[in-house]
Amino acid sequence: MEGSIIKGVGGFYYVSTDQGVITCKAKGAFRREGIAPVVGDRVSIVAHESGYAHIEEILPRRNLLIRPAVSNIDRLLIVLSAHLPEPDWLLCDKLIVQAVMNHIEPIIVLNKADEAVADIQEAFRREYRLFPRIEVSALSGEGLPALKEAIRGKICCFAGQSAVGKSSLMNALLPELALPVGELTRKTDRGKHTTRHAQLWPCFGGALLDTPGFSLYEPESFDEKLLQSCYPEFREAEPCRFLGCMHISEPGCGVKALLADGRLSPARYERYVEIAKDFIFRRKHQYD
Ligand SMILES: Nc1nc2c(ncn2[C@@H]2O[C@H](COP(=O)(O)OP(=O)(O)OP(=O)(O)O)[C@@H](O)[C@H]2O)c(=O)[nH]1
Ligand SMILES: [Mg+2]
Ligand SMILES: [Zn+2]
Prior knowledge:
By secondary structure, this protein is of the alpha/beta class.
């Protein structure tokens, strides 16, 4: 029998199949080979007469994200809050990179439109103008039809800081879920990490995954071309003097000219430099 892992907790995997959700253990050989099934995996399972079932094989993955580990994602819904918690724009940019590197389409979602702070809304519209983006409110329901359209037929995974409203958006889209939602702590205006595990729900001809957010990020691949492709605004630049220009301190750089002309957001560029330097550093030390 084949199915998809919808949840994994304490060594048990919940596999959605034609015959309902079946609780499985992983084949012992997986651990010896250092393989771990993850939420989103397509698997073949074997049911035993005792009622016990095990995962026999993990079918080839289209992609794999880590922390939290999820696989076979079509679209990453990167959620920011238009109010509190204050957006972590760098995390958003890093998540875009992580998505693109894994051949996942990023969609940037600004939630809490019902109490949007004008500066945040403007920054969102300006800096992500070349990306698919949606403004919504899980509370008032505005923007939900557009979000529903964007996810139809696809496997979509929510990502973003704690308390931006990932679980609230899941609940708004699928009220029968009634997932627990958290509050902001008074002291820090940060979230409380309410969602602890990734979980997948088949819906709208595809699936939605709620996650604890992907707060830790490490690039796993070091393809510079791919990094550049995460910055569609760079395509408006004149060619740089040097092939393979990283647009940091090289002379004759088209991207820096774009910046000087005010045609590239300085904030987005500064964050690019931070990500690119990290990238270069990691590539240099990848065999250390
Ligand atoms: N005003 C307003 N508040 C919202 C909206 N969506 C979520 N919230 C509130 O934001 C807080 C956090 O929501 P959650 O859905 O738990 O956030 P989360 O992203 O799932 O957080 P973690 O599970 O901790 O990663 C809750 O108090 C929600 O009521 C919205 O559209 N508008
Ligand atoms: Mg949550
Ligand atoms: Zn350049």
